Amino acid sequence: MKQNIRYAAGSDVGRRREQNEDAGYASGRLLVVADGMGGHAAGELASSAAIAVMRELDVSLPEAGCDLEAALEGAVHEAARRLSELADLDPARRGMGTTVTATLWDGNRFALAHLGDSRGYLLRDGALYQITKDHTLVQSMVDEGRITEDQAAVHPRRSMVLRVLGTEGRAEPDMSLREADQGDRYLFCSDGLTGVLGPEILHEVLSTVIDPAVAVQRLIDLANQGGSPDNVTVIVADVVPPGEGEATIYRVGAGS
């Protein structure tokens, strides 16, 4: 039985940045968060260009029967090619890049593509699971047993990303295909949220705030109350029965 997703999305410039280099997109089939980097507005260009490519999936794919993983991975590769083209037009853009965490749904399953340190979480049966793995220096150090998770959270190089969508024209996203169960709740966000709020707070909000739009705003507000040194982008999506419909709210903070 095909299911729907009820979703909301929001983005805020945060407390210390002058512009918002995050970008996001949410629809009944596609959810994407991108966190740009590169300076001189190149980060904003990288994230928005990646989103522009990804959102084409909404109009180019048939309603059913497509290979979700292949379609989503192809869009990531096309986004990388687009960034390379933009850099060729202006050498100052060389080195710009963006994270990409994206899901493509068909009503029962979804493909997940992930590059960088934006994150995806699943709330199922009261438990919160991180379903993406950070492509960062500190995560590699944790994997090698050199530091603990607690040490990684305060490490001075915790923001160093090892894999992103960049201007070299290549992309190697983590890809997976997952089953969607009715009652599941998903959170996709930039590291501006998780750099401030720990999993306990994420779990509390996602578990207690029923309306996705209210949950999105609550998470952004809590990040800003915590000092929010980076832009904050949040998408919350619930798997709901057919006929319950969809809703989307996209809020952009002042100064973005």
Short account of what is shown:
By secondary structure, the protein is an alpha+beta fold. The protein is 31% helix and 28% strand.
Describe this entry's structure for a reader:
The protein is an alpha+beta fold and 256 residues long. It contains eight helices and 13 strands. The strands form two sheets. Strands 2, 3, 4, 5, 6, 9 and 10 form a seven-stranded antiparallel β-sheet that branches. A six-stranded mixed β-sheet has the order 8-7-11-12-1-13. β2 (22-26) and β3 form a beta hairpin. Pfam families: PP2C. This is PPM-type phosphatase domain-containing protein.
Rough outline: globular
- What oligomeric state do the depicted chains represent? single chain
Largest sheet: 7 strands, antiparallel
**SSE pattern:** EEEHHHEEEEEHHEEEHHHEE
First-to-last CA distance: 40 Å
Q: Which range does the strand content fall in? A: 25-35%
Question: Total helix count?
Answer: 8
Structural class: alpha+beta
Structure summary, number of beta strands? 13
Mean pLDDT value: 88
Low-pLDDT runs of 5+ residues are: 252-256
Fraction of residues in helix: 25-40%
The radius of gyration is 17 Å
Protein name: PPM-type phosphatase domain-containing protein
Pfam families: PP2C
What structural keywords apply?
256 residues; alpha+beta; seven-stranded antiparallel β-sheet; six-stranded mixed β-sheet; 8 helices; 13 strands; 31% helix; disordered C terminus
Topology:
Blueprint: E1 4-12, E2 22-26, E3 30-37, H1 42-54, H2 57-60, H3 68-89, E4 97-98, E5 100-105, E6 109-115, E7 119-124, E8 127-130, H4 137-143, H5 149-154, E9 165-166, E10 174-179, E11 185-189, H6 191-194, H7 199-208, H8 212-225, E12 232-240, E13 250-252
Parallel strand pairs: 1-13
Antiparallel strand pairs: 1-12, 2-3, 3-4, 3-5, 4-9, 5-6, 6-10, 7-8, 7-11, 11-12
Helix pairs in contact: 1-3
InterPro entries: PP2C, PPM-type-like_dom_sf, PPM-type_phosphatase-like_dom
Protein name: PPM-type phosphatase domain-containing protein
Domain PPM-type phosphatase: 6-239
